[in-house]
Amino acid sequence: MIFGFIPLVNQWGELIQQLTQREIKARYKQSILGYAWVVLAPLLKLTTLSIVFKYFFKINTGEIPYSLFLFTALVPWTYTANAVSAATSSLIANAALITKIKMPRVIFPISAILVKLVDLGLSTAVLLALMLTMGQPIYWTIIWLPLIFLVQMVMTLGVSLILSALNVFYRDVENLLEVFLMIWMYLSPVIYPPEYVPETWRMVYNLNPMVGIINAYRNTLLYGVAPPWESFGYAILVTAGVFIIGWRYFQKRQAVFADVI
Asked: Model pTM?
């Protein structure tokens, strides 16, 4: 399967690049704040959640400041949520091209995911600035970050392929997406430590791939240790399964996209 995906990306890479650049330019062309909004939005969310869960619900994060603990998870989570949301509607948004031009339909969700890398890059810069401001050391364990991000990207693409294909046939998918993402966030250790989850539920909880991914980011960035292989191992296995299912389902259904869309 991966042997079919890589050649496809290589063959249509230039078109994917053009679609991505077009979307980036269109997104910020009419925005007064432009790219600054990418930084302001997560900072506003960070401030609100920090106040609520630090002072009202009093979540204990040990020696790590709660705002830093939260933002380390909020950055990757926001990328995945925004990328999945954009990719889900990408086929409908490009209906004119799909009905007129013969091309692999998968390039549209891929392009939508790549567009969100701009947001991720700017948010990551803010995270690094926050770490330096708070005196958080940069550990050698950051060498794990490419692997963690690769798993996250594959997982995001797998989920996006499923939802974008479903959205062509069932438009309620796009309407229910916000609820789905909200539930997914609360089932992931974004605003709380994974230790808050009862031990009896831990195995089921770890089946959520974002658990292992977020734990891995925190381990390598905040604690200077390797990814937690139990939860991160689950994340890798589940990610592989989600991608295989997503790729097969998308390939099976894309032949009739033009007729339905």
From this structure: 0.86
